[in-house]
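Late entry, NDP complex.
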Amino acid sequence: MAEENKMERIKCLIIGSGPAGYTAAIYAARADMQPVVYTGMEPGGQLTTTTEVDNFPGYPEGIDGPTMMVQLQQQAERFGTEVRIGMITEVKLSQEVGGVHKACVDNKTWIEAQTIIISTGATAKYLGLPSEQRLRGGGVSACAVCDGFFYKNQDVAIVGGGDTAAEEATYLANICNKVTMLVRKDEMRASKAMQHRVTSTKNIDLRYNTEVDEVLGDQVVEGLRMVNNQTGEKEEIKITGLFIAIGHKPNTDIFKDQLEMDDAGYLITKGKTTKTNIPGVFASGDVQDKDYRQAITAAGTGCMAALDAERYLASVATPEEEVSAS
Ligand code: NDP
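Prediction complete; structure with ligand written out below:
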């Protein structure tokens, strides 16, 4: 059990170091909230596992994901953000307006924070096949909107039967020559409207009862061996890209029973704000967004969270704090 004595107290704790966390940090630091960012297990977040980012405004030539995240960190640090490598492993959130929240770092040290911005993101699910894991970044991707363009006029495949898979399959069909879509059941989970879009798109080859047997290729994806899970029949196709669209898991385990979340575990925010059900606790980025999941939308909500936190701090400030701030 971690010890709770001799606690450091900060104004703003930001959990997570993706575009949402660092954008929140830039705004919070400029508002003199002296934010501390805890990076989590994957400093820089999901973008560090992508190669080229071509759709973030302001980079006409594109930028590679890891470089972009280093630059975002540097920008946040320039205004006084403290970035610490570490995981927040437990929280004790105060229900009181103006109350102090507690967070445990790496199961060891507790810190106190007047506000917390949660930007812990979501993790794309993968199939778990060794060949798939080996070729991640070499043609296996979990984001068609991020990486689809690299497969322009080529043949690709996508796995999944939900709304994401259906949406991404039609997105890819606009760019690529042919999209083979593998759905493991004899029906799709996606809405009827999305299913209709898939079945009416000519260059989507929809395969029901079909799963990935092996991703083929040494350094990069060169093909796919599929298996029909009813007949056992196997078939190989040539592809250069494989997109996995079988869902995401929001990283919210440590907030269970304290923050409101939907059935899938995404944090619920109030109206158009980033406020959670706990005063002084805000959520930004993919951890509260299962629909858009883009770096730019995450950054936008990171900015909103910092502004919401700043307003909250101003609203609960004691007269002495107001005097010292002026
Ligand atoms: P879902 O959980 O809805 O769907 C996941 C899909 O992946 C299912 O078809 C599932 O199959 C399949 N799957 C899961 N594991 C495997 C596996 N190991 N191998 C093969 N297939 C597998 O996730 P989504 O990301 O599609 O959607 C998440 C939420 O976001 C949903 O509520 C969705 O409605 C929403 N959304 C809405 C959009 C919109 O409105 N425009 C766009 C995108 C998402 P099975 O059915 O057999 O379990």
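The radius of gyration is 22 Å. Will revisit in the morning.
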